[in-house]
Amino acid sequence: MHDAVTRPTPPTDAAPWPRRITQAVQIGNTVVGGGRPVVVQSMTNTDTADIPGSVKQVAELWRAGSEMVRLTVNNPESAAAIPRIREKLEMMGISVPLIGDFHYNGHQLLAGEPACAEALAKYRINPGNVGFGKKKDTQFAQLIEFAIRYGKPVRIGANWGSLDQALAAQLMDENHAREVPWDAGRVLREALIRSAVDSAERAVEIGLPRDRIVLSAKVSGVQELIAVYRDMASRTDFALHLGLTEAGIGSKGIVASSAALAVLLQEGIGDTIRISLTPEPGQSRTQEVIVAQELLQTTGLRAFTPMVTACPGCGRTTSEFFQELAKVVQEHVRGRMPEWKVTHPGAENMTLAVMGCVVNGPGESRHANIGISLPGTGEAPAAPVFVDGEKKVTLRGENIAQEFIALIDGYVEAKYARAAG
Q: Taking every annotated instance into account, which residue ranges of this chain make up the domain IspG C-terminal (predicted)?
């Protein structure tokens, strides 16, 4: 096994721990690990064989900010669809790396569809179901050989729900022989980590370079995930993908994923993340991308779009206008960000504040690049706007929202230099 990596010392100031040093892995036009910014990825839930539907959803995820997109490749039809999906995306000017998610029969699908093997930017292999019995090692080796042949990186992703049962049984037997046996949970965590790490080392033995391997070991419990990744990070320098599997629907999934990943990211662990949300009926799949971005931005690791600070409201804020304005402003800057990213780099770092009364309104507004303090109950019908800490103008009347947004656009135009060309 590769030399273990020392866990970094926590900083004494208000900052995340130093990033864990890992192998840098080139995945299409994106680099994961090696001290690079944490990468956001997502996964489609379309039938991959549905080419128009899959292209549409990949494009939506990419426009929302997903830097890699994973698709299920589970049958010959889906494997045959991958190169056509890649071609249609490229015709749209979308070069997002596509990851093939393989279980059970990946070796057969890559053999049967060489164009799929070529079109994918990375293969995801689950060591718990890559094969069973005597076929397991052979089929795993075949998948790694395809990655070597086509020059592709691989994510070796172990999962609590599909744990290698033979390895788990072996470790249980070894545990019985210990003078002080571990509890069952620790043994299963060890099995999950060993499944990922040992498989990675086996891939290196077969001939896959270390800088073409990403590891993950997903569970559905917050504390278990933190324990697994802390342990795995101490043993190896492979790049790590973070994600809480089967996180859940709505706020439960958001809170659980954020609780687990924020701790690990704060400790410098993790090179790429996915928020595995179950979409609510009718909700866009892009929600998982937005949550991942907001998690990285609120922890100070990356900036994607200007974030709006807004007060929660209280008895002083009987009007809902400040809530409506905060929503309009956030949607406006998120909508403009794809353009600003090209024409006004740095605008993603801008801070905005929409406050609802005089208690904290002026103070919070002064802390933001642009902030507005709306009148609360019984206050004068005036809304002072602060720009970089200084009061710039007071807005009144029916067009406050439009005027405030115009001030934001003007600030971006003046503050962030337009990129050449």
A: 308-409
